[in-house]
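Q: I'm building a small set of examples for a reading group on sequence design. Run inverse folding on the following structure and report the sequence directly after it, with nothing in between.
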């Protein structure tokens, strides 16, 4: 249906499409393009065989809204400074690329808000088409840190997906992102190795914590421990910012991070502002409660951390 679009519940509240009570407001408007995905990722509510509700993605519900009204509200909210980016989450359903092109084009016509899209691209030409339609940044999600984990969770194709991501980053430097999900079975060393490889090519990396969702194939798989996630967040931040390289990080025999190659005071100073533990990814993307429940364990902070929160996160690291 070309005249409607799904809008994340938090975004619908900020855009004044629905009355939504929320504490941490999204700084990006999240819209979903497409219907139930043709792919069958074990962790995803939109997977082909998922029994999760059809309007769910991660922990968020995405009610349908009129497309033209939504575009008008995005433009108005951007002008008012309520949001600073708009992101299309695109499911691999019938005609998804053309539909994403259309929505990007309409948003680009309506205002100059920076536009991102997370999409399954098949070729470099697909990526170029979406940039031409108005996307400022494109995320090609790897999700899994290794080919073996990708095969178990998403099916074959990790090497092809990585190759396309690398080619796109070379053709459109500084404009490609990817998503990595922590807790699918990879070791911390495997993740760090991939972080370094991606960062060296100028690819922006967004970390997610695996979230077990009812109705998905992996609904009984556990979420990662908070300490393990904090170690990986710190590694991503320090590598992406050029403070250290993967070779500086020390690992235990099981692949666990046991040191960052920095003096304790230096590591503390680099992480004291808490940015390493905020949501990572495209600029101004904060994704409130994609990984967590309000009042529960916070993996990705959707706002700046208090000094006490930053200290608690750093206390979980090997120093």
């Amino acid at each position: 249906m070309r005249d409607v679009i799904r809008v994340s519940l938090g975004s619908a509240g900020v855009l004044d499409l629905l009355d939504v009570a929320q504490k941490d407001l999204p700084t990006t408007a999240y819209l979903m393009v497409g219907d139930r995905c043709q792919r069958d990722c074990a962790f995803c509510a939109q997977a082909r065989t998922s029994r999760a509700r059809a309007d769910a993605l991660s922990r968020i519900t995405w009610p349908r809204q009129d497309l033209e009204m939504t575009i008008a509200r995005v433009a108005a909210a951007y002008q008012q400074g309520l949001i600073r980016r708009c992101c299309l989450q695109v499911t691999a359903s019938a005609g998804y690329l053309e539909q994403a092109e259309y929505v990007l084009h309409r948003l680009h016509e309506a205002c100059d808000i920076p536009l991102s899209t997370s999409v399954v691209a098949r070729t470099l030409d697909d990526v170029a088409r979406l940039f031409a339609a108005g996307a400022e940044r494109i995320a090609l999600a790897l999700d899994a840190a290794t080919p073996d984990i990708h095969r178990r969770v998403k099916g074959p194709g990790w090497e092809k997906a990585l190759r396309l991501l690398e080619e796109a980053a070379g053709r459109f430097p500084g404009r490609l992102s990817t998503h990595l999900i922590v807790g699918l079975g990879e070791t911390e060393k495997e993740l760090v190795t991939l972080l370094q490889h991606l960062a060296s090519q100028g690819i922006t990396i967004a970390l997610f914590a695996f979230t077990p969702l009812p109705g998905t194939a992996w609904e009984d798989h556990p979420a990662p421990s908070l300490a393990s996630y904090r170690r990986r967040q710190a590694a991503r931040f320090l590598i992406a910012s050029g403070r250290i390289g993967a070779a500086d990080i020390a690992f235990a025999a099981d692949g666990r991070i046991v040191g960052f190659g920095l003096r304790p005071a230096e590591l503390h100073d680099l992480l004291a502002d808490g940015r390493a533990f905020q949501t990572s990814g495209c600029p101004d993307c904060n994704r409130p409660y994609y990984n967590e429940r309000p009042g529960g364990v916070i993996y990705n902070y959707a706002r700046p951390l208090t000094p006490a929160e930053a200290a608690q996160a750093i206390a979980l690291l090997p120093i």
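The two ends are 53 Å apart (CA to CA).
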